[in-house]
Structure formats: structure tokens, C-alpha cells
Design a protein that fits this description.
This protein is α/β, with parallel strands linked by helices. The chain has two domains: 2-63, Phospho-2-dehydro-3-deoxyheptonate aldolase, domain 1 (Alpha-Beta Plaits), CATH 3.30.70; 83-332, Aldolase class I (TIM Barrel, Alpha-Beta Barrel). It contains eleven helices and 14 strands. The protein has helices at residues 11-23, 50-54, 107-120, 144-157, 168-177, 191-198, 214-226, 254-261, 270-274, 280-289, 316-332; strands at residues 2-5, 27-31, 38-42, 59-63, 83-85, 88-90, 96-100, 124-126, 161-164, 180-183, 204-207, 232-236, 266-268, 294-298. An eight-stranded parallel barrel has the order 7-8-9-10-11-12-13-14, surrounded by seven helices. Helix 6 crosses helix 7 (214-226) and helix 10 (280-289) runs parallel beside helix 11. The two termini are 36 Å apart. The model has no long low-confidence stretch (mean pLDDT 96). Bound molecules: phosphoenolpyruvate and manganese (II) ion (MN).
Amino acid sequence: MLVVMNDSATKREIKRVSKLIKKMGGKIHPISDETAVSMGITGDESTLKADEISRMPGVRNVNDIRKPYKLGSREMKSKDTVIKVGKVNIGGKRLTIIAGSCAVETVEGTNEGGRLLQMLGADLLRGGAFKPRTSPYSFQGLGERGLEILADARELIDIPVVSEAVDTESFNVVEKYVDIIQIGARNMQNFSLLKRAGKSYRPILLKRGISATISEFLLAAEYIMVGGNYNVILCERGIRTFNDYTRFTLDISSIPELKKLTHLPVIVDPSHASGRRDLIIPLSKASIAAGADGLMIEVHPDPEKALSDGYQSITFEHFSELMRELRLIAKAVGRIL
Ligand code: PEP
Ligand code: MN
């Protein structure tokens, strides 16, 4: 439920309401939506008595949130959440571009690639160190060494970095090195990982599972938020359908739907969605036109030689062309790039 206090509510009144909610077994989540103090309350609904709370001095109203996901819903918070990572804002009017290779490969490639991508307009640098590969025989990533390379690039270039954690063990390591922690599609419903992410001080980039419904996706985000980490970025990265000309199918309609249902930022990964570099520009343009807050793109200096996902990685020239074309779309839909 959502408890909104009167503008004139005193600190003492707020404290008394908080105390009552805790006594009822509720957990309080501060909501920064308006000037009035708002509290999102989660917990056992049978013990949380809305009418009793609403009778407390200083309370303006108590709203029941009927959606299965609570903290992520627009009912809880109507304004878009903007997540700050250094100088980068994710979720505002300005679009966020995350770019980099699928996996961290070399020091030179990461540093030079990062510098070039930043020059061309990337806000964040990506690179996997712990890779969830379909085949156990494929390159699994450099592990902690990959994170060191990425963190060094961040210092050298002054760009925030993103990398994936595949389990709670790697989460503890990734958390030390990067600015945003990715939870991949295959782990969207790894509940112990989601709970660990809920305790993190880092923003989480949560990718949609390949067969997850919108509701399941939002409930996965809810696992992170209910733990106390409200900085969740949702990423549509394609779902499994019967079509076999692309790796997955980019669910374009999920973008306006998610934007309607949740205040969390929504970005799109056309690279994994399509698995085809020739589709990156059109899918990126479509995503921004549909209301996405940003993109995550795999870029590699020599895609044919990439240790993972080369067939969907684009070159720097191709990335530069993408940015040029995106500026036109961004302008047309009132966004800044
Ligand atoms: C990735 O971003 O490299 C990745 C493995 O993505 P996904 O979890 O969407 O497959
Ligand atoms: Mn990849």
C-alpha cells in the first residue's frame, strides 16, 4: 500500500505512523515522488490495516496497490525514476547508451574501444567477465581479471562501467569493480541472486528472461526493490518465439507497456534480441521511437574475431552511423542524445 502524509505532517506524526506500520509487520520504502512524504508499505496484507493507518494524525490517504508488483508500479510512484551513476542519468529525457564488447577480452581493446565509444557518444562501457554461455565449451570470460581491466578503463577514460554477475558468488566480486551490475536473461528468476541484488548499493540492470511475461519481469524487479535497492533498470532483450530468422524476437510492444506500468527506466538490447548486426540500426531506431530510455549495444573492433557474440557485434564505424541515425529519431520523439 501507499501511505501519503499531509504536507503539514510533523516529524513526530510521521514517526508515529512509521511505528504503527512496523508494529503491523510492514516494511517501509521511502518514495520520492512528490513534495509530501510518501511511504510504500510491503508486508503481509492481512496484518496491515489500512483504515487504522488512515485514521492516524498527519495521514492524507492510504492507497491500496492492486498490481501484483507494488514498488515498481506507477500507482506507487507516478514520476519516472531517474538513476544517477556518476555524471550519467538513466531514465530522464536524455537517452542512455551503453556500448562495448560482449566480453572483456584485452587491456588494449577495452581501453581503446572504451575511449572511441565515449567519443562517439556512449555513456557507459559494457563488458562481461563472467559469461553465461549456452555451451560449456564456449569462452567463459576472464573472471575477476576481466573486471580489473574494465575498472582500469573506467579510471583511465572516466566512464562508468557495467558487467554481469551470474551467481551470488560472482555478485560479490562484480560489486567491487563496476558501477552497474547486470543480471542476465538466464538469471531473471534466480531468486537468491535477485535477493542479493536487493542488498546491493549498486544499481542493477535486469534483463528480461527469454520466456518471461511482463508481469514476471516486473516481479523479478520487485524482488530487488523489496530488499531495499530501488535502482533497477529494466532491459528488453528479446524473447523466444517460433521465428528462426533472428536469435530472439524483440518485443517492441513491451516498451510502451512497461513504460505505462512502471516508473523504472526501460532500455533495449537489440544485439541479443536479433543476434544479427544488420538489424541493430533499425531495431534501435524502433526502440527509441517506441519510448525506450536507452540502448545497450555490443560493439567490437573486429567482430569476426570476437570471443563471444561476434555475429551480432557491430564495428565502431557502424556504431557511429547508428548514433547519427538515432539523433534524428531522438529529436522526433522529444528526447536528447
Ligand atoms: C550479455 O549482455 O552479454 C548477455 C549474456 O545478455 P542476455 O542475458 O540478455 O543473454
Ligand atoms: Mn553477448
